[in-house]
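To: structure desk
From: M.T.
Subject: fold request, one chain
Message: Could you run this one when you get a chance? Sequence is below, nothing fancy, just the single chain.
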Amino acid sequence: MGRSLSVAGLGIESVTKTFGKAPALRDVSLDIRDGEFMVLLGPSGCGKTTLLRSIAGLEHIDGGSIRIAGRDVTMLPPRDRNVAMVFQSYAVFPHMTVRANVGFGLRMHGVARPETARRVGEVAELLGLEALLDRFPGQLSGGQRQRVAVARALVMDADVLLMDEPLSNLDALLRLQARADLKRLHDEVKRTTVYVTHDQVEAMSMGDRIAVMRDGEIVQCAAPMAIYDRPATRFVGGFIGSPPMNFIPGTIGEGAFVGEGFRIPIRTLPVASGPVVLGIRAEHLRIGAEGLPASVMVVEPLGSHALVTAKVAGTPVKIEAPVDIALKTDEAIHLAFDEGRARWMAGDTGAAIGPA
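Reply: Done. Structure tokens follow.
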């Protein structure tokens, strides 16, 4: 695709953005490495799309700076930033063939016809579009149109590829295939990519790192499994994972985790004393003869396992159990867990206690 595809990184420093009186970005800083696939993850309204549009130059920031390939682009218009973008709506031109759609940006930049044809051919081969080049978008499936939109961005050899929820218009099976295709594509071309999504499964399966956003701030940025195993806050633990992390409130006192109807000795205490929240994943809880007393609410067979919902001291929790487990509603059980899998949160702030 012309020059080397292991391209430039991206630096975001103390970026702020306000719409009216509502802050959309609050002092956001993020360093994205050359060739990295960075996912911006968070609920609607958290600021992730505003940050992406700020990188592209589609939003003017109120403060801070943005650098691409070591170049300060803060005040540059979008056309001068050398970025390519794939939007949620694929925005392919219905009156143009796939070949013309993919090569549109190159023609607008005055690239010669032979070079345009060569680069369109390369990216079409990479994305499996060779047989579709002479078709029109109306003759394509949703997944094929999505690949055309990605090809149109990729062919530009931009320093940074920006994607704003590009799979959200696909059905579940197509999303699954498209996730795998995009991951394979990135592994091949190593283009620095910033990918926005609210889908934590997409984030976990595709990102080299995930920046979890809330209320215009990045609350944690780390590799997917680091965030899954060691969430920095109760919000992160509750947002990442399906089902999300369980949270059981209680207090630490006299060497034990104590709550309504239970006292569990803890060898490695998170604090000397005081209110805490135990964060524990469904797959790290075991139904046994001792541990946290619980009452069964519902059992959902899911094929590979059963998902049991039980109540501990008035708090619903989820447990992964063998699919053939025999439990009845309101049955009394006990839940054991390995301390090494526990994540302790401060009872007041929800911030994790201990190393990230």
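Reply (cont.): Confidence is low (pLDDT under 50) at residues 1-7. Let me know if you need anything else for the meeting.
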